[in-house]
Amino acid sequence: MSVTMMDVQSLEIFKGSTIRTGANKLQSRYVNWVSVIETPVESFVRENELVLTTGIGCGHDQELFYSFVDDVIKSGASALAIALGPFVEAIPHRVIDLALKEEFILIELNWSVRFSDILEQVLEQIHEEKRQYFEKIETIRKSLLHCILSGQSLDLVANHFATSIGCEVFIADKRGVIRGKCKDLAEDLQDRWTSFMQEQLEEDGIYHSLGNTFEWLQYSGGYALQLTIHSAGNIQGYIIVGGFGAEPFTEEEHKEWLMLLEHATTAVAIHFLHEQAAKEAEWRLRDDFVWELTRGSFHSQESMLSRSKSLGYQLNLPYICVVAKPEHLKQSFQSMTHLTITFDHWLHECIRHMEEEAESVAKSMALKSMVTFQQEELIIFLEVNHHNANQQTRTYITKLIRRLHYLYPTITLTWGIAKQYGYSCFTASYQEAKRALEIGRKKNDQHAISTFADTTADRITENLLKNEELIDIASSVLDSLLRYSEERQINLLHTFTTYHHNRGNVSQTARELNLHRQSLLYRLRKIEALTNCSLDDADDLFILDLSTRLWLNGMKTHSD
């Protein structure tokens, strides 16, 4: 949209002019207006303004003329065109030296050239340039909207936009997944942006502040621009435009490109909103199906297979169930004070992103998956194609945790993995995974990944909690120990569990608890005295260990 001094100099009326200084700046100096100024300059000259003068009032006084030119340069003018004649017969050497030093454009005009003709031609050129620019924007806007509304892929949209503006373009969603890119996109640009996006997610998560919608990114081909796509204060994704050369925009270029790219972001935002609406309907159908599968509420095998086929699921594969419980969702939302959406809106998006990532990670491992979010739990049925199902599932969970941490750094999840897996055992596998999750959460072990196969002792302990005589025995053993620990603020129960876990190895236990060996021995003797149990006696050790397990699983003591 901007006219440069090179464009102005190419006008017919400037053919007889002479460029005295700043010829190398003709292409980089923009002209937004043209005016006739005589001394004094004061605040009458705007930035990027071509100034015409006859030097009347200062031309015969070299000091005064020098000050006049200096003031024009300091005003940020594009150039100064001086009509040589009765007032300025020749530009003084001091003035030329000043212009050379400041890399400023000085032009000598023939006295016979009328300033009104210059004004007319330059202003006409500026208006024509603006008209063409707005026509170009309108053409691009219409064509992009046509692409979006006719259901074309984002690859075609990116390629069409790249061709229209002569730059490399690709489009990504808010999770950093590239959804469309132009042909011949530089691999270095894509890799550099992926790293940049990962750093951004690690630092701020998926809901970073919208304070700056423009982000510069340097890569081997020059500079690229990341523009945030958003609607109603909510980030939808990003458009990345590359190939801007060795330096970022000037202020004038920034305004022009911002106006142009905003039309592109609007069009792509419409695509994301349409896509979101379509996905919502599909997600609801899938959620309902997987939840019915989990509860075993299908009345016939035919009905189940028919619905699974329509949703693109394959039930003739062995699946294992994984259940995850997100923790601290309300606190996580409240910590992002810049958000303009409600908690319910944010939670809905959070759930959908969890489901999307669960499916995406499975796909990256060449595994089928079925996912739903019900009763505040993420339920995943994951295909098993490895002889060690537990190892494969843990690898999957590790990758999914890493990905979810990028999107939501403040959210933690507790996990439960079923023992049973195979064909058509969805309900039983879910119940095992949920049981493992509940036991893991009962231990207050956030980030825990509990496997049903490893919870045998915990399940036995929970059944033993129903035996009143056993509760009385355990309570009598632990009452004094718990009271002493509370009064002295020394967790003797933790000391015992660590000692027992290390099979009575005093040195290893002392290192783990960061205690001096003598301090640990004192604590162990105190435990024996308070519980009347000898740590060297197998029966006493069994009673103390069982009592501790019962208390950790929620047993109430006499002192509670």
From TrEMBL:
Residues 300-439 form the CdaR GGDEF-like domain. It comes from the Bacteria. It holds the Pfam family PucR. Residues 492-549 form the PucR C-terminal helix-turn-helix domain. InterPro entries: CdaR-like_regulators, CdaR_GGDEF, Homeodomain-like_sf, PucR_C-HTH_dom, PucR_C-HTH_sf, PucR_dom. Residues 7-126 form the Purine catabolism PurC-like domain. PANTHER family: CARBOHYDRATE DIACID REGULATOR, DNA-BINDING TRANSCRIPTIONAL ACTIVATOR ADER. Belongs to the CdaR family. This is PucR family transcriptional regulator.
